[in-house]
Every structure is written in structure tokens, then in C-alpha cells.
């Protein structure tokens, strides 16, 4: 990927966005969203032993051993705080954990997903814009606002029509924040430490839905 206009610093938090070239669709059905979320989780690891596409064809026992070793090492390019996948773009709220962590994570993730998407749709070439956007989080207020903005995106962009549907939108981290799912991809505590309950975070997000 081309170089950044701003330095990406270890320990700092960034709102990261990239979209399909010419705003073309990048996620066209539930299967593609699921693949993207799984690849996101896999490639946040600093040194996965093989491509995700190769990992997927291994026997279940081998996959479980690989994931157990990665979990034991707990070495990451980035910490995922929040995410949202939309029909033609994605949002991440990330803390960089290693040198060039955000750039390497996004390169590995988008390259893997693009290969999958291109094979499935019999196309060639890049899928996402060459340079992703990154904005450093400078204040607590900005941090909490960004988590709300990211989680509201499907509603504010009219991908879902109601807030109750948004609460269960399966391609963002909001259901994880609200305790609606069992999987844990995100470091939610950084946000939820401010809120006494998941319901109070839900109110924080939804109260600004129409602004």
C-alpha cells in the first residue's frame, strides 16, 4: 500500500476506513461478510503461520492447534476495538501494537479478502482503494463518538431501517458490545469501562441515531 500522510504510532488509536474502488460493492452476501470478519480476526495476529485460505482447508484438529498457539502467543499487529463492514466499505477502530501494525494488518487482510472475492466473482485486480484513511484519536470524547459513529453506520446509511435491526446487525461489533453474541473479536473494555451496563451503551449509541 502507498505510504501514509501521517505517521501511525504504536499505542495510539486510529479510526481506519477503506472502500471499494469507485465505491463498487465489496461485500455482496452474508458469506462474504463472514469471510471478511474471520480474516480480520486471523490477520490481526503478528505472525500467522500460513495464509487464511490455506488455514481453512486444514483438518479441524490442525486449525484448532494453530488458533491455540496464536492465542497463547497473544502477539498482534493491532488491537481491534470496534468494526463495521458495509456493502462497499469498512470501518475499524484500532490501536497499533507493533511497528507498521495497522499498515501490515490492513495489507494482509485486504489482500486475503481480495483474492477470495476475485476468485468467487471471476474478476482480477484490486478491490479496495490503494490508500486507506486513518485519523488519530486525540480525545476521550472523540474516542467514544467514533465508536458510536461506526456502530450507527448501517442505520445512518440506510442499510438497516430500524434501530432494533441495527442492534443485531451481524457484520459489525455492536451485537458483541450489547452481549447479543458469544464471539469476542474486540477489546470492548476500553469503551464499556465508561458505561455501567451494555444497555447504557446502547442508549448512548441510539440517542444520537437521528442527528
Mean pLDDT across all residues, rounded? 95
Order of helices and strands: EHHHEEHEHHHHH
Strand order in space, largest sheet:
2-3-1-4
Total strand count, please? 4
Radius of gyration: 17 Å
- Number of separate domains: 1
Shape descriptor: globular
CATH fold description: Alpha-Beta Plaits
Please count the helical segments. Answer: 9
Distance between the termini: 35 Å
Strand content: 5-15%
CATH architectural category? 2-Layer Sandwich
CATH class placement = Alpha Beta
Largest sheet: 4 strands, antiparallel
Question: Could you give a short description of this structure?
Answer:
With 211 residues, the protein is an alpha+beta fold. It has helices at 30-43, 52-56, 60-73, 101-121, 140-156, 163-167, 174-177, 189-192, 198-206; strands spanning 13-19, 78-86, 89-96, 133-136.
Could you explain the architecture of this structure?
It is a single chain. The protein is α+β, with helices and mostly antiparallel strands and 211 residues long. The chain has one domain: Alpha-Beta Plaits (2-Layer Sandwich), CATH 3.30.70. The chain contains nine helices and four strands. It has helices at residues 30-43, 52-56, 60-73, 101-121, 140-156, 163-167, 174-177, 189-192, 198-206, and strands at 13-19, 78-86, 89-96, 133-136. It has a four-stranded antiparallel beta sheet, with helices on both faces. Strand 2 and strand 3 form a beta hairpin. Helix 1 (30-43) packs antiparallel against helix 4 (101-121). The longest helix is centred in the middle third of the chain and has 21 residues, at 101-121. It is globular and about 45 Å long.
